[in-house]
Amino acid sequence: MKRPKYMFWLILFSIFFILIFSACDSNTSNINGDEPIASQTITYGGSSWIGHLPAYIAVEKGFFEEQGVDVEFMNFSTSSERMTALASGEIDFASTGAISAISLMAAGDDNFSIFGAPDTYIGQEGIVAKGMTSIEDLRGKKVAVTFASSSHIMLLDIFNQHGLVLNKDVEIINMAGGDIVSSFTTGEIDAGAIWSPHFENLTHVDGAVVLAMDTDTSIYKNYGFGSGPDVLVIRNEFIKDNPNTTEKLVKGYFHSAHWIEENPKEAAELFVTLTNLDIDEQEQIINHVNWLDLEQQKDMLSENGELTGTLEFLASFMTENHLINNSVDVKEWINIDILP
Amino acid sequence: MTSFHNSPTLANQKNTNNFPKRNQKSPPKRKKKKFTLSLKIVSILSFLSFLAIWEIITQMGFIPPLFLPAPSQVVVRGYQMLIDGELIGHIFSSSRRVIVGFLISALAAVPFGILLGSSKTLKAIFDPIISIIRPLPSMAWIPLSLLWLGIGEEQKYAIVFMGSFAPALLYTIDATRSVNPILIKAARNFGASNLTVMREVILPGSMPSIFAGLKVVLGLAWTTVISAELVAANEGLGFLIMNGKEYFMTDVIILGMAMISLTVIIIDIVLNWVEKKIIPWREET
Q1: A190/A146 same-domain check
Q2: Is A183–B53 a contact, with Cβ atoms under 8 angstroms apart?
Q3: A300-304, B2-6, B44-48 — which is least confidently predicted?
Q4: How many domains does chain A have?
Q5: CA atoms B225, A87, A65, A36: torsion sign
Q6: Which chain A residues are Cβ-neighbours of B234 within 8 angstroms?
Q7: What is the distance between the alpha carbons of residues A299 and B129, in angstroms, rounded to a whole number?
Q8: What tens digit of pLDDT does each residue of B2-11 get?
Q9: Which chain A positions have a beta carbon within 8 Å of B242's beta carbon?
């Protein structure tokens, strides 16, 4: 018997719809993450940036294990990749640059919370040039920076202060940290704006001069934070499904931050395996960072806390500079109830 | 020499075998035209249905906009960026990089490929080098290209060139080798010199396949421009996509992707027109 022609189309559309709906279903379960995962490995999103030191040390020294939680440290090269992994449920918690967190808020993702900050750092990033003495000397020059990073915000802020207009007075090029160092060395770029450990590498280049530091930004002057402070983020569904594990995780994390303050040398020895820096230089960087303890978190993230103010300032700055399209109320993402 | 002027048609006999048989009845032209038109309508309807299903699924909230924005959202974003003049700048930058990189690779690959396709000795000499270069993705050339050429436009052209040279070369070698050897032999029997055989038999015979290959390579060149714009770029569709990724602007990412497809379609139409003009015998095959 000959099959009617419409059967083919019916089967084709059925397959298409099944595929679409199964994709939606798998997405939703990823986002919701509604399976109890306390007995499974919890994934932390990190990198070689100094802000990940507490989590790295907590894994290496077994501080999470002491709390009865198994945490895996997963490396991501950028904050946006880390936040994408958080949004898709691939990782459970992370420390990340506030720029990326605010960008994700602006994109409408309300499946995560900010519950703290690992550190306040100063002197960890800056603008480095050759043969110049001031920011004004950058007029007509080529400056490289990693877009959507704290250094990008720092550059915009400092240029605003000095009345320099991007891509009119100064040519801005988007480059990754390692590429900035190599291009600066070969003279392809006149200046670079970057964070540690690339910042230190940049200052080691012959004739390198630091034109500005993160301490020169209006964010630092007003709130005492760097231009893209690190924030601790966690998936809301993880908190909902694992309230006890969340508490243990937070305790283990801040125990590690406290340990770092007391043992910077040992922390440096462990962390150089990620950064490839000299141990003494690594120790210096660790000592420069102000590691925040559990008690400070609630104050900083309160209604009028410095970190809350910084995040609000950043969100407005990013909207005004057309980096994000929607204004966000960052307070809606702050959750200090999970802090023990 | 005039006897070889018709050789392109003959030269392609090996590839096609599509010649209508003498007694075969060809379908009435009107019926054929109607059929082609209805196929076009099916294509348009299929595309519109795809967009409609996508719009419905996203508007109904089955997929969050962060993961997949509605087509209407992408259109609105595209309109805004078009009004700002930003979108045109990105399209122009990428198109320039693709066209320059592609043209350089075609200019190098086609004559070289014809030579290698015509000479077994030359092919044996260069085969090992081609085999090494061929599987390398364009991204693998980024670190070296930065060191050799810096961060300017030349580096981006070089990435497109490296991504499209090997495929263009292979298509050309293949097209040259597929020319019917009987035709080459016949030309030689008529006393044609090597140069004449090349000009009158091999070139016209292989040109349709070379052109078809180059069209595929042009599509590949667009994939390489994304790699080229990953480093040290502040405009271009690759940059637009990567910057959209940094700020989680999924609508910008899809807009960038759609613009690449649209630009490739437009360039393809232009290439088809050029092909008809410079290789009219392709129509006959």
Answers
A1: yes
A2: no
A3: B2-6
A4: 2
A5: negative
A6: 167, 171-174
A7: 64
A8: 444 444 444 4
A9: 174
Tell me the CATH number at A158: 3.40.190.10
Across the interface, of A87, A104, A172, the residue whose CB is closest to B234 is A172
Entry pTM:
0.76
Query: Which chain B residue has the Cα nearest residue A81?
Result: B246
Nearest to A103 among B53, B231, B247 (CB): B247
Residue keyed to tokens 């601790």: A232
Residue B159 above 70 pLDDT?
Answer: yes
Where would I find the H helices in chain B?
Answer: 7-11, 13-16, 29-59, 71-84, 86-118, 120-133, 142-149, 153-177, 181-189, 194-197, 203-228, 237-246, 250-278, 281-284
Place of tokens 């960026």: B81
Domain range for A83 is 41-120+229-333
- Does residue A233 fall inside a structural domain? yes
Contact A332, A294 (CB under 8 A): no
Q: Which fold has domain B71-278?
A: MetI-like fold (1.10.3720)
Going from the C-alpha of B171 to that of each of B107, B136, B166, the distances in angstroms are: 13, 17, 9
**Of B62, B239, B248, Cβ closest to residue A103:** B248
- Domain membership flag for residue A19: no
**One domain for residues A233 and A327:** yes
A112 and A54 share one domain:
yes
Give the C-alpha separation, A285 to A203, whole Å.
14
What would the pLDDT profile of A239-250 be if each residue is shown by its tens digit?
Answer: 999 999 999 999
Our CA angle for A23, A25, A31, nearest 5°, is: 105
CB count within 10 Å of CB B180 equals: 17
Structure tokens at B63: 């997929």
- Complex prediction ipTM: 0.74
Distance between CA atoms of A124 and A275, rounded to whole angstroms?
Answer: 14
Are residues A113 and A154 part of one domain? no
| A279 neighbors A268 (Cβ within 8 angstroms) | yes
Q: Is residue A340 part of a domain?
A: no
**Separation between Cα atoms, residue B3 and residue B11, nearest integer Å:** 13
Q: Evaluate whether B275 touches B93 at the Cβ level (below 8 Å).
A: no
A14 lies in some domain: no
